[in-house]
Amino acid sequence: MKMPADWPSAVTLTCEKCGTSQAGPMHCGKPMALKKVGGKDMLVCWMGPDCGKTVIPKHHGKPMTVTAE
After folding, report:
1. 3 state SS for 18-59
2. CA distances from 62 to 13, 19, 47, 54 (A)
3. Tell me, what's the pLDDT at 1?
4. The pTM is what?
5. Closest listed residue to residue 11, CA positions, set 41, 37, 39, 38
6. Does 48 map to a domain?
7. Which residues lie below 8 Å from residue 29, measured CB to CB, with a gap of 6+?
């Protein structure tokens, strides 16, 4: 399976309240990207949500902002 051309090379998660940032999770050797799954924003594996998906981490009780690079 070939990775989609528009897949991000890196993902950063940032707290909107305090500005803390961290690298986004990886799956199957590539960064997970923000996609809708069942109408909900999630981080998804490049091979699709059936391979791997996770909720967006929270910081200070709110979901972190996802930035793709």
Report:
1. CCCEEECCEECCEECEEEEECCEEEEECCCCCCCCEECCCEE
2. 12, 12, 27, 15
3. 79
4. 0.91
5. 41
6. yes
7. none
pLDDT per residue, tens digit, the chain (69 aa), is: 788 999 999 999 999 999 999 999 999 999 999 999 999 999 999 999 999 999 999 999 999 999 999
Tokens of 60: 């200070």
> Which domain does 50 fall in, by range?
28-69
54 is a domain residue: yes
58 in any annotated domain: yes
Is 24 within 8 Å of 32 (Cβ atoms)?
yes
Single-letter code of the amino acid located at 11: V
The total of structural domains in the chain comes to 1
Residue 1 lies in a domain: no
